[in-house]
Amino acid sequence: MNRTIARLMALTLIAIGLVTVSVGMAVAADKDAGKSIYGPRGGYGCIACHGINGKRAIQDYPNIAGQDKKYIEQQIKDIMNGKRVGSPNAEGKPRTEGMKGSLVTPQGKPRMDNAQIKQVAAWLAGQEPAAPKAPETPYDPARLENGKGLYKKYNCKNCHGNDGLKPLKGYPFIAGQKRDYLIAQMKDIRDKVRKNGKSGVMVGFVKKASDEDIEVIAEYLSQINRAAK
User: Fold this and answer.
1) In the chain, what percentage of residues exceed pLDDT 90?
2) How far apart are CA 62 and CA 186, in angstroms?
3) Which phi and psi angles does 154 have, rounded to 5°?
4) Are 206 and 186 in contact (CB under 8 A)?
5) CA–CA separation, 85 and 96 (whole Å)
C-alpha cells in the first residue's frame, strides 16, 4: 500500500513538473511571438514608428516600452476599427493613419488577430521604459515645478497616479513620455478630436486647460524617469 501511494505521489509530482515546464514554455513562446509581431523581421512594422523595443519612437509618436498591457491592447483595437483618430501631423495626415495602414488591409480586413494583439502588448509591457530625453535647451526648473503644480490642479493623478507613475488599470503611464506626444494627446482630448476609450473621462479635467498649461504639464511629465523609480 505504501509503495503504491509513493508511486502515485511520484507520478503526480512528475505530472505537475511537466505542466509547469509546458506553461513556462508557452509563456516564453508568447513573449517571442510578441517580439516577432513587433518587428523588424516578419512583423507588422511597429518598429518603424515606435523604434527598437518600443523606446526610440520617431517624430511625435509615443514610446510604448513598459506601457500598460490592457491600454496597449485597447489602443491597437481602437485604431484598427477607427474609434481612435488624431489631429493632423506635420504632413497634414491624421496621426493614427499610418498605424491603421499597417494593421488593416486596403479592403478593411484586420492584419492582426486578438491573440497577436495580446502577445505584442504583453511583450511591450514587459520592456524597460525609455529614459527621458533631455531637451537641447534645459527646461527652467521653476517651469517644471509649475508643471507639477498644474498636474495636481487638473487632478491628473486621479487616473494616472502621482507624477504619472501609477495609473489606474487600463490607463496609460505618462511619466517620461515624449513632450510633443503628450501635448498632441491632451489637446486632442480637450478639443474632442480623440474620443475613444476612457478619453471622455479626461475631458472634464482638461477642458479648461490652456495650450500653455498643457505644454508646461507635458514638459514636466517628459522629464520623469520611470526606469529609475
Assistant:
1) 75
2) 13
3) -90, 10
4) yes
5) 6
Q: Residue 92 — very low, low, confident or very high, per pLDDT cuts 50/70/90?
A: confident
Calpha distance 130→111 (Å, rounded): 28
8-37 b/e (C-beta count within 10 Å ≥ 16 → b) = eeeeeeeeeeeeeeeeeeeeeebeebbbbb
pLDDT, residue 95, reads 86
How open is the CA angle 153-158-162, to the nearest 5 degrees? 80
- d(CA 224, CA 68) in angstroms, rounded, equals 17
| Cβ–Cβ < 8 Å for 78, 197 | yes
| CATH classification at residue 71 | 1.10.760.10
Q: Is the confidence at residue 4, as pLDDT, over 90?
A: no
Structural domain total, the chain:
2
Q: Which phi and psi (to 5°) does residue 88 adopt? A: -65, 145
One domain for residues 59 and 96: yes
- C-alpha cell belonging to residue 98: 499610418
Give the pLDDT score at 26: 40
HEC string of 72-89 equals HHHHHHHHHCCCCCCCEC
